[in-house]
UniProtKB/TrEMBL annotation:
<feature type="region of interest" description="Disordered">
    <location>
        <begin position="1"/>
        <end position="40"/>
    </location>
</feature>
<feature type="compositionally biased region" description="Acidic residues">
    <location>
        <begin position="21"/>
        <end position="32"/>
    </location>
</feature>
<dbReference type="Pfam" id="PF23079">
    <property type="entry name" value="HTH_NOL4_2nd"/>
</dbReference>
<dbReference type="InterPro" id="IPR056549">
    <property type="entry name" value="HTH_NOL4"/>
</dbReference>
<feature type="domain" description="Nucleolar protein 4 helical">
    <location>
        <begin position="42"/>
        <end position="141"/>
    </location>
</feature>
<protein>
    <recommendedName>
        <fullName>Nucleolar protein 4 helical domain-containing protein</fullName>
    </recommendedName>
</protein>
<dbReference type="InterPro" id="IPR039788">
    <property type="entry name" value="NOL4/NOL4L"/>
</dbReference>
Amino acid sequence: SPVNAETGSAHDETSSSGNKEDEDDDDDESDDKIDAQTHDPERLKAFNMFVRLFVDENLDRMVPISKQPKEKIQAIIDSCTRQFPEFAERARKRIRTYLKSCRRNKRARDPNSPWDATRPTPAHLTSVQAEQILATACENESHNAKRMRLGLEPVSQPMPILPGVQ
């Protein structure tokens, strides 16, 4: 009997962590909160913007993470890990949460209205400093793409150090 009777495919939807992924599970996302004492809130904003940008450019926002091309998900995770090493463990979950949010927002709107890919980022989710961090991260990844096309290793950024945190 097929693993997934709904689609008739025997595709295993087990995530890399070994958990079955329900595309619309309303799991408690409170563990997605971070401690401002150990992480720079501006870098967190930039990280979230980075994830949204890369997902928007590379994935179908109406499709759950389990149905997305694995190599594209991994490439986004790798980029996040290189540019925001302090959030490396959160990258996959952030991608998944953003995809879920996109599907929820699409359902909440008029189903006949076109998806507005250019809607502005809410003010509380961005800042001048976060935009600068994002621009640097995107530039770094652009250089990394060129390096990889030449067969060179991509360059990762060092773990940031917050003043006063040992």
